[in-house]
Amino acid sequence: MRLTLRAESREQRVCGWRVKILLSIIQADLTCAAANLIPVCLNTSMIDLRKATKGRRMSKKTRTKSSKPSVGKAGRAATQASSRSTSRNTGAAKSGGKSKSRQNKALPNSPSKSPKRAATAEQARPVRSALTEGSKAPRFELPRDGGSAVSLADYTGKKLVVFFYPRADTPGCTKEAIDFTRLSRAFSDAGTAVLGVSGDPVRAQEAFRNKHQLSVPLASDEKHQMLRAYGAWGEKSMYGRTFEGILRTTVLIGADGRIVKVWRNVRVDGHADEVLAAARTA
């Protein structure tokens, strides 16, 4: 009997506890719904309040912004337009100041540039020769391959073809020199001598001659004096870059020492044959 009573008392205690727990849960739910709070029945220790409230807290900036009165779309557009107009005005003022300063710098009486610098700038500009057909050929004397010198006086009483090429042993210059070498006998039969001139040193001219077995003499004009006199030196452009250099030019001088014909901006293909035809009729 004692065993049964103890078992029944235990069951009654367990049931009583269950009833009490259910009643406490129901009361807590009712109070939470009324007060809109977190239920006491939940295990609040499992909830991280920092993560739960993340993104809901207002920073000091947002608090100050929220305290200010809200501006509508029309107000925003007006403020943007005013800021743009002010920026344009300031930019125009700055550009005007820069242009005035540039004009002041460009005045001839400004002492920023000395006369010596102006003179050197003028000398650096390419000198264009007034070389035209019928004019007298400018005199020259240059070192040539083999160690000797060559001058215009060496061809007195003969016709002379002078072809100016930019650089030795380059594709276009090599083809041009080979074509004149190929027609050297034909030029000789027409009573015409052929001379090649570039700004390369004598050693480069000799190496160029030996490599391609050229028979025409090659003169070296490193100071560009003859090139300027014959209008074969000037401004060039390549790959969007402008610079000064040798302009591919050919000049036919008559037996009387006057210019017969000038070929400028020469295209190498068929050029030697064209010059030979002109030399035969000159």
Key structural traits:
282 residues; alpha/beta; Glutaredoxin; two-stranded antiparallel sheet; 9 strands; 48% helix; rod-shaped
Question: What does this molecule look like?
Answer:
Helix content is 48%, strand content 16%. Among the domains are: 1-40, no CATH class; 141-281, Glutaredoxin, CATH 3.40.30. The strands form 3 sheets. The protein has a 5-stranded mixed β-sheet. A two-stranded antiparallel sheet has the order 1-2. Strands 6-7 form a two-stranded antiparallel ribbon. The termini are far apart. The chain has 10 helices and 9 strands. With 282 residues, it is of the alpha/beta class. The chain is rod-shaped. The longest helix is centred in the N-terminal third of the chain and has 34 residues, at 2-35. It has helices at residues 2-35, 49-52, 60-67, 73-106, 115-124, 171-182, 184-189, 202-212, 225-229, 271-281, and strands at residues 141-143, 149-151, 159-164, 192-198, 218-220, 233-238, 241-246, 249-253, 259-264.
Order of neighbouring strands in the sheet with most strands: 5-4-3-8-9
* Number of E-type strands: 9
Q: Determine the number of helices (DSSP H or I, runs of at least 4 residues).
A: 10
Largest sheet, in brief, is:
5 strands, mixed
Backbone shape: rod-shaped
DSSP strand (E) fraction? 15-25%
Name the poorly predicted regions: 1-5, 34-42, 65-71, 103-127
**CATH fold description of the domain at 141-281:** Glutaredoxin
Binned, the helix content reads 40-55%
CATH architecture of the domain at 141-281: 3-Layer(aba) Sandwich
Q: How would you spell out the order of helices and strands?
A: HHHHHEEEHHEHEHEEEEH
What average pLDDT do the residues reach? 75
Structural class: alpha/beta
Q: What would you give as the CATH superfamily of the domain at 141-281?
A: Glutaredoxin
What Rg, in angstroms, do the CA atoms define?
49 Å
* Alpha-carbon distance between the two ends: 154 Å
The CATH top-level class label of the domain at 141-281: Alpha Beta
